[in-house]
Design brief:
Pfam families: Sulfotransfer_1. Its EC number is 2.8.2.-. By secondary structure, this protein is an alpha/beta fold. It has a domain of 184 residues: Rossmann fold, CATH 3.40.50.300. It contains twelve helices and 13 strands. A five-stranded parallel beta sheet has the order 5-7-4-8-11. Strands 1-2 form a two-stranded antiparallel ribbon. It has a two-stranded antiparallel ribbon with strand order 3-6. The longest helix is centred in the first third of the chain and has 30 residues.
């Protein structure tokens, strides 16, 4: 209650003890917060009393707003930001597409032009192809389909997955195994004059094993009698009609497309047009995609928009064949003639190898 001074002025009542106590507590609490904040800044900026004294970098005015929005203690590295997603992808989405089992397989034949077919068809936006040969249906079948699937490139629903392993064509178990995976699988076989193919096969082997016997020595069991050694793989592969019988036990001819290795060189756009029709995709790969490389002796892809550079097959392609005695070549033509004729009749196509 207010009281009067002797002079007549009214004096304020002295604060109650409880109010003085509350003010002291408030002052102490404020001092405590200030000390805590100061200690926190010293520890963050200098890394603790044991760490060497570090000076915080000056903050530029232009970056002040950003630092306020995403503050972090000075002297510590900012967490790495995740890479930006590819253009057109949904925010936070993983790599687009799904790994699927192939809908089409280039099953043969070795040294026929399978690599060229694979590289050419990869230009198509609706095709994704495995670059390496997985050898699943001949060497790695025990690993299972999920292992096989894991090797495949990711594809969208509108795209076709393709792989190539030329040795499938001469592997007896391959037709049944592929059929068990999917009876709707489309098969591509690249064939070539079996005599030329055998010489090319031998040339490749000779480059890796220079000490192997001569071509003539490997070709014949008895050259004077004209007995060809069909156990030699280079000879056996060219007996196309024999190997085709195994495939026709599981797949109709309508699911097998035969590419001419010779026309693939002289008319790559024409042959690839037929491949695109067989796969049920639009004819995108045309003459404008190719040019003939005179040094290699076969067509190459013109520069693409993605790389800006022309693309030819590897150094091992276009290798000069070893010289073979013309009489040996003639004997091999006689040997392959009945197999070729049967092959023409079966597939309904004359490849004119005679």
């Amino acid at each position: 209650m207010a009281r009067r001074a002797p002079s007549g002025r009214v004096l304020a009542a002295a604060p109650a003890p409880s109010r003085r106590l509350a003010r002291r507590v408030l002052v102490l609490f404020t001092l405590s917060l200030s000390c805590s904040y100061l200690c926190y800044n010293l520890l963050c900026c200098c890394g603790g009393s044991a760490a060497p004294r570090a000076r915080c970098p000056p903050v530029r005015a232009a970056a002040a707003k950003k630092l306020l929005q995403q503050s972090r203690p000075c002297g510590r590295a900012a967490p790495a930001e995740p890479p930006a997603p590819p253009a057109g992808s949904a925010p936070g989405a993983a790599r687009p597409g799904t790994k699927r089992l192939p809908r089409a397989i280039v099953v043969g034949v070795k040294k026929g032009g399978t690599r060229a077919v694979l590289e050419f068809i990869r230009v198509h936006p609706d095709v994704r192809a495995l670059g390496t040969e997985p050898h699943f249906f001949d060497r790695n079948y025990h690993r299972g389909l999920e292992w096989y699937r894991s090797l495949m490139p990711r594809t969208l629903d509108s795209q076709i997955t393709v792989e190539k392993t030329p040795s499938y064509f001469v592997t007896k178990e391959a037709p049944r195994r592929i059929f068990n995976m999917s009876r709707d699988t489309k098969l591509i076989v690249v064939v070539r004059n079996p005599v030329t193919r055998a010489i090319s096969d031998y040339t490749q082997t000779l480059s890796k094993k220079p000490d192997i016997p001569t071509f003539e020595g490997l070709t014949f069991r008895n050259r004077s009698l004209g007995l060809v050694d069909t156990s030699w793989n280079a000879i056996r592969i060219g007996m196309y009609a024999v190997h085709l019988e195994s495939w026709l036990q599981y797949f109709p001819l309508s699911q097998i497309h035969f590419v001419s290795g010779e026309k693939l060189i002289t008319d790559p756009a024409g042959e690839m047009g037929k491949v695109q029709d067989f796969l049920g995709i639009k004819r995108v790969i045309t003459d404008k995609h190719f040019y003939f490389n005179k040094t290699k002796g076969f067509p190459c892809l013109k520069k693409s928009e993605s790389s800006g550079l022309p693309r030819c097959l590897g150094k091992s392609k276009g290798r000069t064949h070893v010289q073979i005695d013309p009489e040996v070549i003639e004997q091999l033509r006689d040997f392959y003639r009945p197999y070729n004729i049967k092959f023409y009749e079966t597939v309904g196509q004359d490849f004119r190898w005679e």
